Structures are given as structure tokens and as C-alpha cells.
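> call design_seq(struct)
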């Protein structure tokens, strides 16, 4: 499968999942990714916003594209910056709730409780409602 991003210079945050996606090394247990972009030149940045700043210099000046979250890109656009979101996301990644693995307490019951609560919030629509409220009508609780 060919995309408009094949062979382009793409900015990403260094070491993040976008970087791993482009280098085809992204591996998250239980998930399979379709690495649809081939032969990209990956340019790493300290943050997504720094990459977006280089993109705003003009297409092809330093970058042809940036891969970032839709919310980060939209926030940058809403600040009046000259970039735009094009096409659908190239991949979705599962997100999680973090817990302290170094705690001396057994985290198994806490992880189970968090999993139950998040599952209930997903099932009863609370996550959808919160996402739409805080992300300008976008439902980020479901894969689009």
C-alpha cells in the first residue's frame, strides 16, 4: 500500500510511538500495526510542537509532514499557526492509566480496580462524554 507520505521527511518526537511507527519498530503487546509509510526520512524532535514549528516554515523547507496526535495538531492550529491536518490518522495506539511499578504494595488489586472503573466508564458513555467535552466534540475513547 502506498501513501502520500512515502519517501517524505517527517517530523516526530524522538523515541515516541510516532518515531517507532515510522521506523516500523512499534510493538505493543496485543496490538498489530499496519506500517503503511515506506522509506520516510524520520527527523526527531524534543517535542511534537517543535516539529510543528519546523513544518510551519513551509512545506519542504525542513519537513514535509509531522505525525502527532490530532489534539496536539489542532491545538497548534487553534493558536493561529499555518499548518493543517490532512487525511485520516495513519495509526491508532492504545493508551493506558499509569501506576507505580516500584511501589512495595501489590499493585494487582489496584490495576484490577482501575481496569474495572475505566471499563465501566467506557460502557456507560462517560469516556465518550468527557472526550467530546474536552476535545471539541471528538470522541477519542473509540478508534475512528
Amino acid at each position: 500500500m502506498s501513501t502520500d507520505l512515502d519517501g517524505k521527511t517527517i517530523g516526530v518526537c524522538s523515541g515516541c510511538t510516532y518515531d517507532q511507527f515510522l521506523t516500523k519498530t512499534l510493538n505493543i503487546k496485543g496490538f498489530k500495526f499496519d506500517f503503511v509509510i515506506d522509506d520516510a526520512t524520520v527527523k526527531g524532535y524534543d517535542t511534537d510542537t517543535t516539529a510543528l514549528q519546523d513544518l510551519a516554515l513551509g512545506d519542504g523547507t525542513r519537513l514535509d509532514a509531522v505525525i502527532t496526535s490530532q489534539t496536539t495538531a489542532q491545538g497548534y492550529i487553534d493558536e493561529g499557526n499555518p499548518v493543517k491536518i490532512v487525511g485520516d490518522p495513519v495509526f491508532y495506539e492504545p493508551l493506558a492509566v499509569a501506576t507505580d511499578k516500584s511501589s512495595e504494595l501489590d499493585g494487582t488489586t489496584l490495576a484490577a480496580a482501575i481496569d474495572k472503573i475505566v471499563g465501566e466508564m467506557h460502557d456507560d458513555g462517560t469516556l465518550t462524554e468527557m472526550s467530546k467535552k474536552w476535545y471539541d466534540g471528538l470522541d477519542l475513547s473509540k478508534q475512528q
